[in-house]
Amino acid sequence: xxxxxxxxxxxxxxxxxxxxxxxxxxxxxxxxxxxxxxxxxxxxxxxxxxxxxxxxxxxxxxxxxxxxxxxxxxxxxxxxxxxxxxxxxxxxxxxxxxxxxxxxxxxxxxxxxxxxxxxxxxxxxxxxxxxxxxxxxxxxxxxxxxxxxxxxxxxxxxxxxxxx
Length: 164
Hints:
five-stranded mixed β-sheet
């Protein structure tokens, strides 16, 4: 299973560059996770075309989205092997250097905890969970997570630029 994880799109209208990134990196993923700060309802609705789109609200989303997104959420994804992968999601808040700690505390026992807010990539293991910040899509970063049948996770950060 492949997960595409993005955050901090900060885009008011889906443009040609966004469509190329979506087609090349996001559309083929088994699930598309957005960790908040889409900024616009137009972008949110564009992401909704993905058959397995899961999102949380960021600090820049609460006034502009007409869809009520949660600030945090847990999701369970079933693998072909029957194993279930537990994913926690939040945008993040507060002092940027310790966002990962605050978010990790919300989701004990989860396999993967995804967040944004800092615009900085992070992939690390903490107390049995993998923590992921995909960086900012607006600044040209996303992450692809490959989930093995045994639940093992590998992360690949992808740089996207205006030519993508």
